[in-house]
Design goal:
Blueprint lengths: L4 E3 L4 H10 L6 E4 L6 E8 L7 H17 L4 E6 L7 H10 L4 E2 L24 H8 L2 H7 L2 H5 L1 E16 L13 E4 L3 H10 L2 E4 L5 H6 L5 E4 L1 H6 L8 E17 H5 L1
Parallel strand pairs: 1-6, 3-4, 3-5, 7-8, 7-9
Antiparallel strand pairs: 2-3, 5-10, 6-9, 6-10
């Protein structure tokens, strides 16, 4: 079955059925009551808040479909809000098999540089442009090394969204970036962009952003609007610049050994 499709929330069925058809084995197991069949547990880790659309999609679609269609032989446990560690930690957990599935951003680009291409600044015009690129040969080429190099299988691209700047004061011109204390992910591509704008970049894990904004350790951050709202950062930020300076995809991955088992 074709993989690497852009994950729109209504297509949770496609992702779930792709997963079910693989006949996953390995991983944690226990006997299902009365059936004698070993029950597999699928831990899914990500950094989104509980009320973020991606977490809601996992809970209300993916989990229910997988558990129903597998007749209870598969149990999905979703760990939101960096419960199983920050992005790098839970990605490594999927690589080594302690976590079955994850929804990271493109943190793997430090080892697989071409995975950083979708986050080049001002690369995409709109969502249609994103879908054409990531669902086509380029998207397949970008992810082709994930299994042989990191031992994870890509299941689907996910539309996190176009990134925008929120701040504790208006950003009306390029001058307003000068000296702005800006939180960005600890990824070279991001840091270089922030520094090129003239900001003082502070790379912080997403779990530390609210406190840093609230205590004015940083003045601003960049993320898609859905993340801004679901994380409550709008409560400690006064302004949003709809810059759409970068598209930020996520990718649904699964430990390859578990998937192929």
């Amino acid at each position: 079955m074709k993989k690497n499709k852009l994950f729109v929330f209504s297509t949770s069925l496609t992702l779930a059925m792709t997963f079910l058809l693989s006949g996953c084995g390995g991983g944690e197991g226990e006997k299902t009551s009365g059936s004698g069949v070993e029950k597999k547990t699928i831990k899914v880790a990500h950094y989104f808040a509980e009320n973020h659309p991606q977490n809601i999609a996992l809970k209300e679609k993916f989990k229910k479909i997988v558990e129903k269609e597998s007749n209870g032989e598969l149990e999905v446990r979703i760990y939101a809000n960096s419960t199983l560690g920050a992005e790098k930690e839970f990605y490594d957990g999927v690589r080594n098999g302690t976590i079955e599935m994850g929804v990271p951003g493109l943190i793997m680009q430090s080892d697989i540089p071409k995975m950083g291409v979708p986050e080049w600044p001002f690369l995409f015009r709109d969502y249609d442009h994103v879908k054409k690129v990531l669902n086509g040969p380029i998207g397949e080429e970008l992810t082709e090394d994930l299994d042989p190099k990191h031992g994870v299988t890509p299941l689907a691209w996910s539309a996190n969204g176009f990134r925008m700047f929120s701040s504790n004061r208006p950003i009306k011109s390029m001058k307003d970036f000068d000296g702005l204390r800006l939180r960005m992910p600890n990824i070279p591509n991001y840091i270089k962009l922030g520094e090129s704008l003239g900001a003082n970049v502070s790379p912080l894990p997403i779990s530390e952003v609210f406190t840093a904004l609230e205590q004015k350790v940083v003045d601003a951050q960049d993320n898609p609007i859905a993340t801004l709202r679901s994380s409550g950062w709008n409560e400690v930020q006064s302004d949003v610049l709809e810059s759409k300076h970068m598209f930020s995809p996520n990718i649904y991955i699964i430990n390859s050994k578990f998937y192929k088992g």
